[in-house]
Amino acid sequence: xxxxxxxxxxxxxxxKGTRLxxxxxxxxxxxxxxxxxxxxxxxxxxxxxxxxxxxxIGHQAEKVLAAVAATGVAFVEQTEQRGTGHAMxxxxxxxxxxxxxxxxxxxxxxxxxxxxxxxxxxxxAEQAAMTILTAAPEDPAGYGRILRKSPKSSEVEAIxxxxxxxxxxxxxxxxNSGIYAFKTAPLxxxxxxLDANNANEELMLTDMxxxxxxxxxxxxxxxxxxxxxxxxxNTIAELVALDATLRANTASRLxxxxxxxxxxxxxxxxxxxxxxxxxxxxPFVQLLGRVKIGAGCRIRSYSVIEDCTLGNNVLVRQSCVxxxxxxxxxxxxxxxxxxxxxxxxxxxxxxxxxxETKKAKLDKGAKANHLTYLGDAEVGERTNIGAGTITCNYxxxxxxxxxxxxxxxxGSNSTLVAPVTVGDGAYVGAGSCITKDVPAGSxxxxxxHQFVKEGWATARHAGRQKE
Length: 467
Ligand code: UD1
Ligand code: CA
Fold this sequence. Notes:
Elements: E1 5-12, E2 30-31, E3 34-35, H1 36-44, E4 53-57, H2 61-68, E5 74-77, H3 84-90, H4 92-95, E6 98-105, H5 113-125, E7 130-135, E8 145-148, E9 156-160, E10 175-183, H6 184-190, H7 207-214, E11 219-223, H8 236-256, E12 260-261, E13 268-269, E14 274-275, E15 280-281, E16 286-288, E17 292-293, E18 298-299, E19 304-306, E20 309-310, E21 315-316, E22 321-323, E23 326-327, E24 332-333, E25 338-339, E26 344-345, E27 350-353, E28 356-362, E29 367-370, E30 373-379, E31 384-385, E32 390-392, E33 402-404, E34 409-410, E35 415-417, E36 420-422, E37 427-428, E38 433-434, E39 443-444, H9 456-466
Parallel strand pairs: 1-4, 1-6, 4-5, 7-11, 12-15, 13-16, 14-17, 15-18, 16-19, 17-20, 18-21, 19-22, 20-23, 21-24, 22-25, 23-26, 24-27, 25-28, 26-28, 27-29, 28-30, 29-31, 30-33, 31-34, 32-35, 33-36, 34-37, 35-38, 37-39
Antiparallel strand pairs: 2-3, 6-10, 7-10, 8-9
This protein binds uridine-diphosphate-N-acetylglucosamine and calcium ion.
């Protein structure tokens, strides 16, 4: 047998997740904006190299694989899901050659690398064949229970699944987290002894505790200090509870780093969000995906920011929606602004009320303060875009670019029909429809001439009174 190394990690993730009643495989359900399995993989990656992580996939395997393939982990297929013991039988080839393995569950996402490291240390110190991570939650319902040799002993007799608990065993409070360390050889030697003659009618990895004990092998348990981190997500309610725990942890971490989050229980902050000190997050803000916010910013209520990078001292006023864009130092956004993907909002630039931008680049100090659409547009330094300006970027077939130079002035209610360029320092008269390029330093007015008929209204009025 080829020697593969001292330790591999197996993540069991093939199950359907029947109790979620969802079309989506369980391990792809998200908490903190990230799939359950992705959380477990990132923890495992802190313990061993991705090539030594084997993810057992089965139900909607292709979808699960596609979601996490970029992490570089290896996959094992369990075509038919006949239980956690069967999942391990499917991983037999993969794990053979490693001295030990750690087993994690794809639906236990809050586990910390420090805790796994403790399990691994304990497993080695105890020279155990199997080490079980346990916990003692308030409500142990639904979990397998740990039957210790005696209350004080670290040795375990067996794991008893919920359905198999005798009346007397109902009082057992210590639960099986589904996270284990095994010496590979004694595990492999007994995998075929598992059978489905149990209340779950499955091949259960939990039965390995009793099997190893019966063979005189050492089976031990170590209890986690924090119960939260070993809880599983089997139902939507459990999933939502784990999401809340994770988000509360994220908010606490950010506050410890100097970020003010008012009423953190109302905010939705994804796990990978980074925020520098002295930034204030007001209630009911959502920060989703990869959001990076600099120092001294203020994000006001009801704004939703997704996959964006904000510099320092940025102000996002109430009710803004920002996606896949970068906002430079000192910029001011909103209220009620919509910054769509592909925007670069420059230093000290303003994107004001009811302004929508898409693939728009506003240079330093550029301003679009009211009621404007800037799509596929470039706006130079210190240029002012008047209220109601529209870039007509779409001709019904293709998108075109509008280029506006620096220190230009676009009068209110103008339409700029792309492709079109307004040069540096040029003026566009209010209400213009601009279809031709405007040279630098010039004035363009593209609107109907105003005519005035003096006395017209008075005469009309007088006529009406005679009738
Ligand atoms: C399992 C344990 C239980 C423990 C609990 C902790 C067993 C029999 N029971 O129960 O003692 O308290 O975890 O969370 O192991 N999976 C596969 N292939 C399968 C079946 C499951 O890969 O054929 C995967 C699932 O996708 C899941 C994990 O294994 O990620 C655990 O399976 P699940 O059905 O959730 O087990 P529990 O009933 O929670
Ligand atoms: Ca589970």
